Amino acid sequence: MIHLITYSLRIKLRNFSMVFWPLVFPLILGTFFFFAFGNISEADFETVSVAVVKPETSNPLFLGFLNQIENNTDDLISVSEMPEQKALDALKSGKIAGAGLDVYEEETDFFFEDRSDMVKRDTLLSLLVSMPNVVLTSHQAFLTKEALHNIAQVTLENLDAYFKDGTVLNPVQ
Question: Which of 31, 58, 61, 113 is most buried (CB neighbours < 10 A)?
Fold first, then answer.
């Protein structure tokens, strides 16, 4: 039995990738992380104040993320919830370092159709977009590879069910 164990160990040691990636590499990586971030709890960071503008219909994952940041005991990021105009004023005065908007409340007037030929502009939106410390997402989460795959899969399942027995799995109401 011991002969089989030693033989198996010798074979595995001869195969470099069999030993290096699962055993040695994590030890080296852990050592690097320890030296890079080992004393991070003792480091002196300045708190970064940011504003988050969130509408009533925000993404639940986004709201969960915000809740974790707001309830965190670390003082690295201070999150404040405020409307767009108040966030712009706080950015201009330097009270906050950045702002994140999940959606823009008046976005239906600008985003859902090509209105590039319109003269009408939203001053607040223009100011927010022009700032480098503002992140604005305008319902673009559906453009991920996973979301497009899911959309295609549901569409094909609906077509299969319709042509099979005439039923619609996800009717539009």
Answer: 58
